[in-house]
Amino acid sequence: MATVAIVGASGYAGQETLDRVLAHPALDLYALGSDSLAGEPAGALDPRLGRNGWSRMPRFITNDAALSCGADVVFVCLPHERAAAIDPPTRGIVVDLSGAHRFREPEVYAAWYGFEHPRAAALSAWSYGLPELSTPHGRLVANPGCYATAALLALGPLVDAIEPEGVVVQALSGTTGAGRELRASSHAGAVLENVSPYRVGEHQHAPEIAALLGFPVTFVPHLLPVRRGLLATCVVHASDTADLRGALQVRYAESHVVDVLPEGVVPELARVQHTDGAEIGLFEDRLTGDAIVICALDNLGKGAAGQAIQNVNVLFGLEETAGLRLSGVLV
Fold first, then answer.
1. By the number of CB atoms within 10 A of the CB, which of 22, 41, 147, 261 ranks highest?
2. How far apart are CA 175 and CA 150, in angstroms?
3. pLDDT digits over 161-181, tens only?
4. What mean pLDDT comes out for the span 237-250?
5. How far is the C-alpha of 144 from the C-alpha of 152, rounded, in Å?
C-alpha cells in the first residue's frame, strides 16, 4: 500500500480526491492537509467521514505539514498561485491538480494566470498527465484542467485529420469548477435560472488546449446552473467525418474511461456526473459539412480527482481504473 497525503483536502478537488483514495485498493491515506481545518477531526469536513469505519481517520494538519510528511503520493489541491509556490518533496510522486505546473514556459503564467511563476526554473521537471493522450512520467505530474481535458479528448486523436484553422470549442460547466471559495459570480442569485459565458477569449485553458493540439482554438466557456458536469462542443472542418469516427474508435478502443458513443447517440451530463468516465459523440452538420465532436465528463471526476488517481495508477503500474468510479447506471 502506498501512503497518500492530500494538500488542500478541504476544497472540492481535495474532497473528491479523498473519496477516491479511501476506496482505492492500493492507496492508504496518511495525511490530510488544510490550513483552515488544521487540528480538527476529519469529520469537520464532512460528517460522512465518521461513518463506515472511517472514524479513525487522521486529523487535519497544515498544508505545509502534509506536503512534507514523507508520503509516497502527494496530491496538491490548492489554488493556482499557492500551488506554484510549493517546494515539492524530494521523494515520492506529486500530482498537482491546479494549473501551476502545466506549462514549461513561465511567461504563460503572467499572461494567462495573472502572476509571475515563483519557481520558473523547475517547470521543466513536471510532466503533463492526460493518460489517453499524454502519458505521465517522472515524479512530478501536472493534472490537466477540466475544460482542457474535454476538448483534448475530443480533438486530440483528430489532429492529423482536421484543418487547424477555425476550430471552435464551446463548453459549459457546473459551479464546482470554480472551487469552494465564495465569489459573487457563483452565488445562487447569479447562477440559478441563468447560463452565462465568462472569461470570453481569455480563459487559461485555451493555451493549454493549444499546447497539446499544436494549434490555437477559439474557446468560450459558460457557467451552468448545476453543481457538476461539463460538456464541450467542438466544431471542426474535415474532409470526411467517417475518418474522424475511425480515429476516435481506434484511439479509445482499449479505454475503460473514454467511451465513443454509437452514431446518433449524444453525450449527456447525467450519465457522467459523479463518475470518472467521459463520453464522446461525433456528428456532421448537414448544411455546412462541418464535424461536431462533443465530449461530456464530470469536472470533478475525469476533469480533476479521477484523472489524478488515474495518473497515479499509471505511474505505479497498477490497473489504470483502480479506485475510479466507472460502473453502474444510476438515475
1. 147
2. 16
3. 999 999 999 999 999 887 767
4. 92
5. 10
